[in-house]
Amino acid sequence: MSTWAVPGYTESLELGSGASGRVVLAVHEDTGTPVAVKYLSESLHTRPGFVHDFRAEARLLAGLDSPYVAGLYEYVESPDGAAIVMELVDGASLRSVLTRQAPIEPEAALVLLKGSLLGLADAHRLGVVHRDYKPENVLVMPDGASKLVDFGIAVSTGESAGVAGTPSYMAPEQWTGAPASPAGDVYAATATFFECLTGHKPYAGDNLAELALHHVDSPVPFEEVPEAVRPLVLRGLAKSPAERPEHAEAFVAELEAAAVGGYGPDWEERGRAGLAALMVLLALLLPSARSRTESTTDLARTVLRPAPVRGAGRARAWRPTLPGVLVAVVAALLLVLLAHGLPRGGNPDTAQAAQALATTSARPGVTSGPTASATATATAGPSASPDPTGSLSPSASGSDPAASASASASAPDTTADVTPSGGATTTPPPTTAPPTTSAPPAAPAVKSVTVTGFRQTGPSTGTTTVTLTVDGTGPVTVTVSWYTGDTSGQLGTPDGSPQTFDRSGATQYTLPVDHTFQGTGCYWAVQATTTPASADGGASQQLLTRRCDLR
Asked: Are 76 and 6 in contact (CB under 8 A)?
């Protein structure tokens, strides 16, 4: 297993792992903010298709600012590895909830569905289709709120990206490789809602072909759910996308109407209270309960068997073995007893990372790194399943570079992830180790700065991408300034405060940066400068906003 770690973060324990990658709990050294770091597996890092998709997931998250979706802090890529640094949601996966108690009360199921649908709605408004909504990708917090995670195989609306997803939740059109649409996410969310209400998936099959036929042809088993929500299930699991709500926001409106009609105006309060009671039983699985601050910690990893690499062009169902699960549980218990005696596994010299790519999702007023108010979410590799529900992704380049994450310590989730094969999830406890120090590298020379992709994302919001190339791995500062005006070719009047990012440990950085404009000019402009100053003096870009029509 690779020992590469993201510079600037101290890791404490592993939240989950699988064939596509692993997720670890870490702390941003400058701010002390806890984060979840999702690493692309070492075997997939050598395959360009998987790296491309992993990078695309980070860029998608950078543009998706939603309270119902785990957010991106930073993306870092080097010859030794690739990682997404994201918000740490202090919650457990819906799969963990269902493993311990299913079915759950209708009001609680409606609250879960609404929360994650709001996350889908924010994605759909940006033209993004998740394509892998399932219990593993919904994290439930102690207060009953939920967040959506893992956009590893997400694509743009209308894009034809082949057959990919988790079979038990795939819409009929998803099996045929039809262009992606929000209606497919509505179908998967409804299938998950059905499982919450009944304790089992809508359709079962002995193999993928049989399961596909059920999704395409079998009647919707709406009689198994409470009468008050049957119209929701019938609409959401309709065979034709045209018969479903066209996007998640429309489905939320139907959900709220059905919930009030069937369970009264206080349905949401009761449902959230019921979920909070369930989460008490899962308290030990939360990242906050598993981290310790008494001493300096480092990551201890246990690999019970090698994680197989996903094959190209052929989907296979992954079947775990009972001995492997038992060994994982026993190993975790043993490591609890031995945690304070394990030696440090390694300390890679981050100054050696060359030709790296770093991406940061920035918000107005944020300098660099995670903010102090962050809450958290972890997504990790595939979990065990004895049925043919392993995810489907037959493309040669791969569609799911990193697995969905749940912070389950005592038992693995029971649904396979988006890869046709996977590895057992293990959760080693933290181990103590003395801190290490190294001399900081000298400031590098900045060779070039570029500003690309500047576009308007809303009436007063815009986004751009700043790319920085340097000749060393020492510290460098990037300042992004925004302007408004009415004259083409001129920057105009400064708009808001500049955003500053401090970076080190790589030779190339890519930063997607967002801004909310306060000025009213017809033109917006953005300028990027660096310290040390770049050889080309910086870069800028201007656009004509949609609010103005110059004739």
From this structure: yes
